[in-house]
Structures are given as C-alpha cells and as structure tokens.
Amino acid sequence: MPQKKFDGDIPLFIPRSTISSAENKTGSWRYFRPFYEEKTAPCSAACPVGADIPRVEMLARQGLFKKAGEIILEENPFPSICGRVCFHPCESACNRGDYDQPIAIHSLERFIGDTVLMQGIKADLQPHSTNGKKVAIAGAGPAGLATAYFLSRLGYQSDIFEAQPESGGLLRWGIPDYRLPEDVLKRETSRIEDCGATIHYNTPVTQELLEKIMPTYDAVFIGCGYGRPIQLKIPGEQWAQDGLKFLHRIRTGEPASIQGTAAVVGGGNTAIDVARSLKRLGADPIIVYRRRKQDMPAFEPEIAMALEEDIGLQELAAPIVIQKNDNHPSAADYGYTLTLQKMKVSATPIRGRARVVPDGDICETLNVDHIFMAIGAGPEAFWNPSAPTQISELTLSHCRIIERKVPVIYGGDLVNQPQSVTDAIASGKQGAMALDVYFKQGWGAIEERLASCRVGDGPALSMAAYHNAETKSRKAHVVSFEEINSDYFQSSPRAVPIRLAPDQRIQSFAEIESTLPKEAAVNEAQRCFNCGICTSCDYCRIYCPEVAVIVEKAQRRINLDYCKGCGICVTECPRNAMALEEEKK
Amino acid sequence: MKQVLEGSHAVSEAVRLARVEVISAYPITPQTHIVEAISEYCANGTMDARFLCVESEHSAMAAVIGAASSGARAFTATSSHGLAYMHELLHWASAARLPIVMAEVNRALGPGWNIWLDQTDSLSQRDTGWIQLYCEDGQEVLDTTLQAFRLAEAVNLPVMVVLDAFFLSHTFEPIDVPEKNQVDQFLPRLSPRIELNTENPYALNQMAGPAVYMEMRHNIEFAMQQAFSRFDEIENEFEASFGRKHGPLDAVACDDAEIILVTAGTTASTCRQVIADLRSRGEKAGLLKLKMFRPFPTDLMRRYLEKTQKLAVIDRNFSFGASGIFAQEIKAALCNAKRRPPVFGYIAGLGGRDVTPQTIEDIYWQTKNSEAPKSESIWIGLNEELVESWSN
Fold first, then answer.
1. What is the pLDDT of residue A377?
2. Domain A232-377 class in CATH
3. A15 vs B200, B208, B228: nearest CB
4. Which pLDDT tens digit goes with each residue over B211-243?
5. Could you state, in order of their start, the residue ranges of all structural domains in chain B?
6. Mutating which of B50, B204, B217 best tests the A interface, going by the most A Cβ atoms within 10 A?
7. What is the fold of A21-38+534-582?
8. What pLDDT was estimated at residue B285?
9. CA–CA separation, A189 vs A142, rounded Å?
C-alpha cells in the first residue's frame, strides 16, 4: 500500500447517482392516495356553541391571543363569562382525558376572554352590512343578548326589552360575585350594545306590549328565562325566602350581613350559591337535599368548594312542614323548625337518576333562624309557547319557532335542557341563523341549512360554517383518542388556576379563582392534541420518504408525481388531520 | 482553563466545543455519562444541536449515518454490547465515507455479565473500516475527540475514540478545556463532501457490482493510508494552538531499550511508572504506547521495535483460539521487517481486573529471564487453584 502523502481532497469513489433522482417518478407506484382532511374535535362537538377549541388552543400556544379571541368571538360573545361559569362539557369530552388529564379549556377560554377585554382588543370580525330588518328581543339575559349579537353579525338591527335596570339576566342577578365579578360581566355584555343593539331597560315585556310592538318588527325573539320560583307546596312555606330573589337582593347591594343558622333547600347551583353567599354574610348555612350528594344537579366543583367552606349538607331529607317558633319555649333560640322526612334510595332508578322514596315515616327536625327555598324556577305563565295549532311551527335543539304575523322564536331557558349559560347563547345563535335563513330562503329551508352548519354530529352550530358555507372543509367525524398518535405527546400536568383558601374565601365576595398567567396559559395550550386540525407541525413532510409534501403559502399539498402512497404521513399525523383513500385508476 | 472533569465529560466537552449538530445515542454503562451531559447541553441551549433519542445502538448509528449523509457533523457514543449491536452499520458508515465520530468505552462483553474494562469490544470491530484511537488519560480524550472530527472530515472515514471503562471514563482529573473561539479556529464548521439535498436530489449508496466494488474498497484503503499523514498534520496544528501532542505511538525510553513493553490505554500510564523504576535500577526497559490501531502504524512501529531485543505486549483482550489481538498485530507488522525480536504475548486485566505496577514488573522479569516465549499467550495473575480444579 502506498503511504505517499497525497495533497488536496482525498478522492471519493462512492456509489452515487450522476443524474437527479427526481427523474424517477415514484408516484406511478401508488395504490393509495393520502390527503389532508380536517375533522371535528370532541370538545367542539360537546360545546353547546360549537367553539373551535382546537384552533383557539393552537393560536394561544403561538401567543396569537387576538386571533384566538376572534375565533372564539365568532361563535360566542362571552368568553370571559363562559370561562368562569360554564360547566365545560368540552373538558369531559377532551381526548387528552384518556391520556393524562383533560385540557383546562375553561381556564384558557377565560384567559383569552380576559386578555381581549383587558387589552381592549377589538376583534376583527367579518364586516356586515345592515339589511334594514329589525328584530324585537324580550329579555337581556344571555339568550337575548346573544341573539342580538349574532343578528348584528348577519346585518339585522335589534331592540332588546328588559324588565330590570341592567342587562345580564341570571348572570347579573343570579350568580354571586365570587363566581362572576360584576365588572367582567358588564365589560363583556357591553359588547352587545357596541355592535349596535338598543336595550330598553325597565321595560318588562307583557302580553300587551308584545301585541303592540309586533307589527313594527320583522321578527320577535322571546328569551325571558324563568322568573317564577317553583313552590314546594308544604305547610308553612310562606316562612321560607326564595333563594333566587335572595341572590338578586345581594347583587343589588343589600343585605350587608345575616346572622344565625340557615337551611337552604335544594340541590342545584342556586342552592349552592345561596348557601355560600349566606356563609359570606356571616350566617351558618346547611343545605338540605332530598337525594344524595352525587345526585345533586349543581356543578361538582361548586359542591366541593361549598363543603370546603364548612357548609353543612343534609342528604336524603325532604322538607314536609315549616313551623314558626314565636311561642315555642323548647326552641326559643331559633325562629323556625323544619320537619324533614328521611328518604332512601329506591332499587329502581328513574331516567338514569337514582329515585328516592320516603324511608317509612322516619322524620327529624331542624331548628334554624332562616329558611331558603332553591328548588328551581319556571316561566311566567304566559311565556309558555302555545300548544301547536294550524300555524307553522318548528322545534329545533335550542329554539322553538312559530310563524305568526311575523316569526316568533322562543329561546333560552324557556326551551333549553339543560338550562346553562352556554345553551342560552347557543339558543341565540340558532335563533339568529334560523331567522336569516327564513328571510333569505324561506321557512322550508331552515332545517337543512342549519344542519349544514352543525359541528360534528351534535346540535351545536358554527357561525363560521354558516358564513363560509362553500369553504367548509371540516368533516363531521369526531376524532377519538385511538385516532390520535399519542407518541407525539408527553404526559404533563393540567394547569390549575390559583384559588383563594376556604378561610379567605368566606371573608368576602371576592372572586375565588384567578385567571391563568400568560406562561401557564401558553403551557396549557401546548398540551392540547388539537384533534383533527392541521397545526403545520410538519411531521407529514419530515417523514415523507419521497419529500412529496409541498408547503406553499403555509398550505400543504401532496406532490402526486412522487407520492408512492405509503401512508407514512397519515400514520405520523399526530392529530388525525389526514386520511388515505384507495387510488382510483 | 483547567477543570476537574470525569473522563466521560472530557468527551462531552469536546463534543460541545466541536459544535456537533446531531447526536444520537442509547445509554449503556459505562458510556452513559458522555451522552447524558450532551443531552443536557442540547436541552438547556448550551449546544445548538439535535439530540435524537433512539431505542437501540443500531438505530443510533443509523441516525448519525442519516445526519452525516445530509452534511451534518454527527456524534454518537457506546460501549460493549452496544458497539456489537452496531456492527452492521459500522461497515456501512465507513463504506459510505461518512465522517462520523464515536466515543467507545472499552467494556467486557457478557456473559458473565461484566461492566468493567476489556478491549475485546472495540478490537473485534477492527475490520469495519473505522479509524481507532486509544486514549490514556482525560486530557488525551478531550484533545483526541477534537482531532477526530478534523481527521474524519479530512479523509471521509469514521473515527472511534476509545477510552477505558471506569479507569478513564469515571476518573476525575484536571483537564485543560480550551476556549470556544480557539477551537473554532482549529475546527471550523464542516464543509460536507456528501450532502443529500432535497432541492437537487440524488441517490447514494446504491448497487455497485463486481466491476466497481473492488475499486471502491481500494479507495477506502487509500483514504486509510492517508490518515497517517493527515493525523500528523492535524496534531502539529493542534500543538501550535494548544501546546499538546500525543502522537499515533508514544515511545518512552525506547532508543536503547533491551525490552520494550507495548500496550494501550490507561495501562500505559502504569507502565510509565514501572519503566522509570526499572531504569533507576539500571534495567534497560522501554514503553511503546499504541494509540492509533487503525490504520495500523506498521512502518513507525518497525522503526522502534526492530532495534530492541525482546517485546512484551500486554493485551487486555483476547481472540479465542489465537492470542491477544495487539500481539497478533505486532507480530504481523514485524513479519516482513529486517529484524524480528521475539514477541512475548501477555494477557492481563480482563474484565476490569487490576493491572498493578507489580503485574507489569512480573511481566518484565518473566520476559527478561526467558530465552523465548513458552507459549503464544501467557496469562498473568490467574487463580491457579481455580484453573487446576477444571484442568486436572
């Protein structure tokens, strides 16, 4: 072997093609064809307003909060409110729940809503031109406000008639400050007047007023909610105060303090809110519920926090009589005696819920200074939509439309099950869309047109899809956890917002939970699988053996000259935003 | 600046200073500390590099082959079974002419399960076309790793930097860690000669039939032979910048030596002390430290060994059915030499057994007092009782 020194580059004699390998059009080998196909995320499908959560979280991760806010506001005018009080069915549906813990979607929604509010960001939503049509709306609660908002986005003018001196409905009068601070509510609901709706305060909508104004409007939306408390119909009920009215009084500024013991009858959110408010005013409340804790319709975290605040809970106890103890020597310290029938769980459930029946005739008594009833409310009698007649009528998921002289829509709590804020907003959106279809295409087109805007396979409707009917590309298929390529994700804990400690909470009505700080929000958004949507992660391109994924103007396409249909891109896609179909030769 | 560093981290520091772009590795004792530190550098931004976690050494080598094929400076590290698992791809990396650098910590192969020093793992990869450089101490490890990138990129062949398990990999010594800008001058960014490019795609490493395969092999050997002079140039340049030179061979007191000990790795350090002691007692003993094993420095070795009377080769490895591997190679190198002193092959310190100054002195006296080797391999320090129990 020569050991002679060789100057310059060592000659390389290696196997290497002299012509470009692009000559070899490997696309001719293909039997399967990959393509980009966005699908529906389970959170979006579970959200009553069909929020585009996977896209919002993607934008939040990128720090594009304004754009994220616009995507939310397209479907929901109240992210700061919903981020606080919605019971977030999105999180129960979240695929990440099958991996470690669901994304804290409500915390992120609240963060983005607050960021948009605090920074005074004006959402650049698609501009609209007014079409000259006017709609009357009864009630400035979430349903009525949402109706006005979505109508304005479609070019309609609205007048809202509200019995109270302020807007917000149950949000304003029925939810305590520690869950939904007044300034957040006011700043967010002012969005409705900003988009051109007029609110007539102190104007209760009576049957007479309705008849009078109807001829001057092109349509009417009735979203008055439930104002009439349900009666328990037990002797001595007149001694009990109504829970919802009590909450209303607190939010108008009275009373400053309440002393003594108090029984709160009920198991819904109002009962919990009343008990927790009483605690904050200085009283010692106990919740009395005829079923068990796990049967309570109130949101689970609210129940847990009430118990943390040292509020009593008496389960399986149904009130049967209230006595006033004016002249009752044995209970001199207490104002009232509540007699409770002990209940037990029956072996046969009813509609999926445990049924309770009296446990023989066992009774016990509870001596308290105050009694509050919070067992639900119903509509004022005349708001019950009239029974079907010969006139056209359409029952949708969140609305009921009756064609009278002009179309009349019943929405909000009047028709919704469950009666949640987000369902009320969904009702407003559905009503606004239905009216627009009615005016543009006629009564007969409503159902089909609305169905084309459904998010996934559920009732939620997408305003974005309504606006861009032609470009709607997202498939109704809801992505399951098995369709996520979880190799791309690492286990990480869910963001937990800072909360006041129980002993701090009960000192005042200060808000309990804080908005996530920016870093925590971005980190949380990073956990999102972004089910079904393309986030430009580029794994399809990186893993393509033929470099056949082309990116042009941030859009990806497959170069079919070279794609051999191996399907690696589809398998690698972390979030099921691609699909493979047989090549039609 | 001098720092007290573990031998493993001398490699990690060199890789950081070399601005390696892609690292892929799979952990194995006693190598793990090397890539552990590098992975931290990648994670905390100290290094602007991609660290690819893989599920095996086979994949680690495949990943750095891919990285090097696209023109990136690439590094991996392994040991023992990990190296054995890479075997197929070691051939591939060299024949694809990719300038990959690998740190290999000499560790015994099982069974019996053993994590300690033994040279058989790297020596049984001698025919894979990799340049092999054996280091004696932490400073040499750091310097050689930096030089290895220059050498690999000069001849387009992969380089294995070899260090002893624990005696070197886990021993802390004061090591001079050069400044980044000084290293940047010595080792500029790689200008790759092989660089896959999606804009102008071409095929690499496809079929090569009988008409060209032999020439390709000849071309690899041509590059191997050029490694001698290139390494020399690189070492001279390194010495000019950093003031240190280790050489492909290090001859200690060989000029007038009657008996020369030949060995590699940390054992050379112990030999240095024994040689000094023997010299002080009037013995004409010398040491030839073998650093460069591939390409094998036959000419240089003859120059030192032809003059002496006897050679004692200390192998911490063994080729079953033959002899110690260094001894074999030295015998082969001397076969066509003008003078051929007798070669005494000693097997010592396998599987991490200590090779003490006394062991080496025993080897010296046994060599001095024997006319010719009693056998091709003399096993030193065996437990005779144990051996007799099965040989009788």
1. 80
2. alpha beta
3. B208
4. 999 999 999 999 999 999 999 999 999 999 999
5. 2-191+203-242, 250-391
6. B204
7. Alpha-Beta Plaits (3.30.70)
8. 98
9. 9
Domain B250-391, CATH: 3.40.50.920
Q: What are phi and psi of B11, to 5 degrees?
A: -65, -50
- Domain A134-227+379-451 annotated CATH 3.40.47.40: no
Query: Which among A1, A9, A16 has CB closest to B202?
Result: A16
Residue A544: list chain B partners with CB under 8 A.
Answer: none
Instruction: Please give the interface size between A and B, counted as residue pairs whose CB atoms are below 8 Å apart.
Output: 65
Quick one: fold of A42-124+477-527?
Fumarate Reductase Iron-sulfur Protein; Chain B, domain 2 (1.10.1060)
Q: How many CA atoms lie within 13 A of B231 on its CB side?
A: 29
What is the C-alpha to C-alpha distance for residues A520 and B99, in angstroms, rounded to an integer? 44
- Selected for mutation to probe chain A from B131, B202, B212, B300 (highest A CB count within 10 Å) is B202
Q: Do B2-191+203-242 and B250-391 have matching folds? A: yes
Considering only the top CATH level, what class is B2-191+203-242? alpha beta
Hey, what amino acid is at A91?
A: E
pTM of the model: 0.78
| A327: confidence class by pLDDT, cuts 50, 70, 90 | low
Give the residue among B43, B122, B44, B52 at the shortest CA–CA distance from B80: B122
Spell out which residues of chain B touch residue A2, defining contact as CB-CB under 8 Å. 222, 225
Q: Is B156 on the interface with A (CB under 8 A)?
A: yes
Same CATH topology for A134-227+379-451 and A232-377: the answer is: yes
Share of chain B above pLDDT 90, in %: 97
Q: A-chain residues within 8 Å CB-CB of B204?
A: 14-17
With a pLDDT cut of 70, the percent of chain B lying above it is 100
Instruction: List pLDDT tens digits, range A86-114.
Output: 989 999 999 999 999 999 999 999 999 99
A547 contact residues in B (CB cutoff 8 A): 198, 201
Q: What's the number of CA atoms in the CB half-sphere (13 Å) around residue A148?
A: 32
What residue type is assigned to position A520 of the chain? A
The closest of A57, A109, A118, A50 to A83, measured between CA atoms, is A109
Q: Are A484 and A100 in contact (CB under 8 A)?
A: no
pLDDT-above-70 percentage for chain A = 94
What are the structure tokens assigned to B390, written together? Answer: 């099965």
Interface test with B, best of A14, A20, A24, A25 (most B CBs within 10 A): A14
**Does residue B290 contact residue B380 with C-beta atoms inside 8 Å?**
no
Domain segments of chain A as ranges? 21-38+534-582, 42-124+477-527, 134-227+379-451, 232-377
